Automatic annotation (TrEMBL):
Range of residues in the leader sequence: none
Organism: Rhodopseudomonas palustris
UniProt keywords, alphabetically: Kinase, Transferase
Family listed: Belongs to the HipA Ser/Thr kinase family.
Highest classification ranks of the organism: Bacteria, Pseudomonadati, Pseudomonadota, Alphaproteobacteria, Hyphomicrobiales
Name of the protein described by the UniProt record: Type II toxin-antitoxin system HipA family toxin
Length: 419
């Protein structure tokens, strides 16, 4: 645990095609005269001289000799925040440390190096050797039990207790709020997502079925599979930011939609959450703007048609395996069943009528997705027909019980979509 005074760390990066990290620069977190948290980042000269050097973030931290400064997000640059733990990881770290909350840098430094993307953090000028040991699927039962104990707050309050020590096995640096861990299987790394005992339906099976349904609708989705351990279901989602080579894992850079939007998660900052803005910002960064804009449009339609109202900007990302950026495969697709049959809202604005998950509204901004109106209408109609025709059979074919499928019936193609 770092002391409050030492608010600086080195930022490491695994360069494209490599399996170990180099030092990209230094991040310093301090307070300005008004007592606001104030972040500074500077690339290391040696890194800038390296012909293989790539930007750690295409939005805020392009390759340059300048000192970057920010007071937004408590002094955290978006790409650094993306690489840090989110609600779930913070909870694991706090329980492990036996206190909360911790400083922003503590969270970064305490999260082990299975974080999304290509960045790492540490107090030494040079990065540590890459981690070689990963959880295996055989460990899933233990990991699931640990996650459940944390959710239920069933763990001792003593940081020295073995169970509390073991918590770090869950990994803390994948984002999100739901209980999860990272495991290795079949020469790949996977995000293992667990059910919670207070879920209204079997979430892992439903999310698995949604990833399938999305594929049937023509979306590009993360690869996934279901495992049952000790009678409990676990969803394994293959990590699209890691690839196994004979030397180890390569790492793709990754930044979230939140960073692309230069936005925050605080409720008062949500007026900046917008798909049309996201697509415009993304178009300026990615290698194939037309292709990715169309794919994002499909995702907006799909989210509206399955009432995925938890489609917040961290559930979208761009990745760079080599030097160029592209939209990541879709992940975290979850239906919901709001009471209203007339109006449901996505998490982001999606058209002239704000967040309204409605075909006309979504179509109103077709041009910003680089689509002709007729092309956009065809996408809406095709996905609507596919979801309407197959949601039930796809859920049942992928292990969702009849009872859960019925519970979720009102999520699909809700009447307000076509008003
Ligand atoms: N297949 C994947 N490959 C790489 N990174 C991933 C993958 N799936 C998810 N992630 C990263 O992990 C984070 C958490 O995953 P996910 O969104 O599935 O979890 P969650 O807990 O359900 O999230 P939420 O809090 O939105 O409900 C994502 O925001 C993304 O950064
Ligand atoms: Mg998520």
């Amino acid at each position: 645990m770092i002391s409050k005074a030492s608010a600086e760390c080195f930022v490491y990066i695994t360069l494209p095609g490599e399996t170990s990290a180099v030092t990209a620069g230094k991040f310093v977190l301090s307070q300005n005269a008004r007592n606001d948290a104030f972040g500074q980042f500077v690339y290391r000269g040696k890194y800038l001289d390296d012909p293989r050097a790539v930007e750690i973030d295409p939005v805020e931290l392009k390759l340059s000799k300048r000192t970057y400064e920010t007071v937004r997000l408590n002094g955290m640059f978006g790409a650094l925040r993306d690489a840090g733990p989110d609600y779930w990881g913070r909870r694991v770290i706090e329980k492990h440390a036996g206190k909360a909350p911790l400083g922003e840098l503590d969270y970064l430094l305490e999260s082990p190096d299975d974080r999304a993307g290509a960045l790492g953090f540490g107090l030494n000028t040079e990065p540590p050797a890459p981690k070689r040991k990963f959880n295996q699927t055989i460990d899933l039962e233990k990991l699931q039990a640990l996650a459940e104990a944390l959710v239920k707050d069933d763990l001792p309050n003593d940081p020295r207790a073995q169970q509390v020590q073991d918590l770090m096995l869950l990994g803390t640096s994948m984002g999100g709020a739901r209980p999860k861990a990272v495991v290795q299987a079949d020469g790949a790394l996977w995000v293992a997502k667990f059910n919670r005992s207070d879920d209204s339906w079997n979430n892992t099976r439903v999310e698995y079925a949604m990833l399938r349904l999305a594929r049937e609708c023509g979306l590009v989705t993360a690869e996934s599979r279901l495992e049952t351990v000790g009678g409990k279901d676990v969803l394994l989602v293959k990590r699209f930011d890691r690839e196994k080579t004979t030397k180890g894992y390569t790492r793709a850079r990754m930044v979230s939609g939140l960073t692309i939007l230069r936005a925050d998660e605080a409720p008062e900052a949500r007026q900046n959450w917008s798909y049309p803005v996201l697509v415009e910002e993304m178009r300026r960064i990615v290698e194939e703007p037309k292709k990715d804009a169309k794919e994002l449009f499909r995702r907006v339609c799909f989210n509206a048609l399955i009432s995925n109202t938890d489609d917040h900007p961290r559930n979208h990302a761009i990745i760079a395996k080599e030097t160029s950026w592209k939209l990541s495969p879709a992940y975290d697709l979850t239906p919901s069943t709001p009471i209203s049959l007339e109006r449901r809202d996505l998490a982001l604005d999606c058209g002239d009528q704000g967040r309204y998950a409605n075909a006309k509204n979504i179509l109103s901004q077709h041009a910003r997705f680089l689509l002709e109106l007729s092309e956009a209408e065809k996408i809406v109609n095709d996905i609507r027909a596919q979801v309407e025709g197959t949601w039930y059979d796809t859920m049942r074919a992928h292990g969702v019980s009849e009872q859960d499928a019925e519970r979720l019936r009102s999520a699909f193609v809700y009447p307000g979509f076509s008003l």
